[in-house]
Design brief:
The structure is a single chain. The protein is globular and about 60 Å long. With 207 residues, the protein is α/β, with parallel strands linked by helices. It has a four-stranded mixed sheet with strand order 1-2-3-4, with helices on both faces. It contains eleven helices and four strands, in the order ββααβαβαααααααα. A hairpin with a 2-residue loop joins strand 1 and strand 2.
């Protein structure tokens, strides 16, 4: 469990990291106060990463999601949907943990992955050496994939078994990722969002 503290200086509802601001809103409250979300637009302006954590706590909540999603797209916010307060708390905890892995640390992992793969490929001179190298490449790939939020080693192995390479995983759609056993919609969305991040784009396509 992540530690937390209250602050009267924050303009957002939660601050998992210095550059990340989160607004929390329930569907029930949104139905009663539809103007509230727009009124709080400026409360996230100071943050690089702007997130609306939206709790669907009404049976027909999906019907209003289109409006909320449109607002988020227009404002440049990321929309995270949850179905219970416990799930919302887990998202906040994961965001706090993810803030410890900033762009530099994740990019270093990716650069190390590429460098080590290239080095190992040069050493593949015979069948035995190639088998050992492939095992090491797989290990490096697993380490890289598990840096993605909520992805564990088992998930990473399933991804590699299904797609065969980091590049194919990065090109996969959310629906294709959802088809992998054990992933589900949330993890699939985390993977898609991870490979869309600007700090990966600036280094070119995944190979």
């Amino acid at each position: 469990m992540c530690s937390h503290e209250y602050s009267t200086e924050m303009s957002c509802d939660f601050e998992p990291g210095k550059e990340c601001g989160v607004l929390f809103l329930t569907m029930k409250f949104h139905r009663l106060n539809p103007e509230y979300i727009e009124a709080r637009y400026g409360h996230l302006s100071a943050y690089k990463i702007k997130i609306l954590l939206f709790l669907l706590n009404l049976p027909d909540g999906d019907k209003s999601l289109h409006d909320v999603n449109s607002i988020c797209q227009r404002r440049g916010w990321s929309l995270i949907i949850c179905y219970s307060f416990q799930e919302a708390a887990e998202y906040l905890e994961n965001l706090a943990k993810a803030s410890q892995h900033n762009e530099q640390t994740i990019m270093k992992q990716y650069q190390d992955y590429k460098k080590n793969v290239q080095t190992l490929k040069k050493k593949q001179c015979n069948v035995v050496e190639e088998e050992d190298s492939n095992k090491e490449i797989c290990k490096i790939a697993l380490n890289f994939l598990t840096s993605i939020r909520s992805i564990n080693t088992s998930d990473a192995m399933s991804l590699l078994d299904n797609f065969g390479s980091i590049r194919k995983i990065s090109d996969a759609t959310e629906e294709e990722l959802c088809a992998v056993s054990g992933l589900g919609r949330i993890k699939a969305r985390n993977i898609v969002n991870f490979f869309k991040q600007s700090f990966l784009k600036q280094y070119g396509k995944i190979r």
